[in-house]
Specification:
- The protein has about 120 residues and is an all-alpha fold.
- The chain is about 60% helix and about 0% strand.
- It has one domain.
- It is elongated.
Length: about 120
């Protein structure tokens, strides 16, 4: 009983970690390459490799029947791959926002200060 509950929790956490890594990978891939040096960050190809490897390791860590279940979420490799995606999402992604040509929250462009 407890063993199966632990397996379900582990499976859900692994899927959530992989979802985070996949989101980071898609976000890196859709950003313009020129935005990275403008924001003072490493190149787009660097982040594609880092987040791509993280997503691949995250997929491998997801238990069967979806992934291979090799490393485990809380092993050193699993934690490092989650950290790589988190670093991109909380540090690099916000720095790229003004240079990506995308509209900000609620349809406002990054240069729009709003007001009356």
């Amino acid at each position: 009983m407890i063993g199966s509950a632990q397996l379900v929790v582990f499976f859900v956490l692994s899927l959530a970690a992989f979802g985070l890594q996949a989101w980071a990978l898609v976000d890196v891939a859709t950003r313009p390459a020129a935005a990275f040096p403008r924001a003072g960050k490493r190149s787009k190809s660097f982040w594609l490799v880092v987040v791509g490897v993280a997503a691949a390791l995250g997929f491998i860590a997801v238990p069967r029947p979806i992934g291979l279940g090799l490393f485990g979420l809380f092993g050193l490799v699993g934690i490092a791959s989650v950290i790589a995606a988190i670093v991109y999402l909380v540090d690099v992604r916000p720095a790229l926002q003004p240079y990506s040509g995308r509209r900000g929250p609620r349809g406002r462009s990054p240069g729009d200060r709003g007001g009356w």
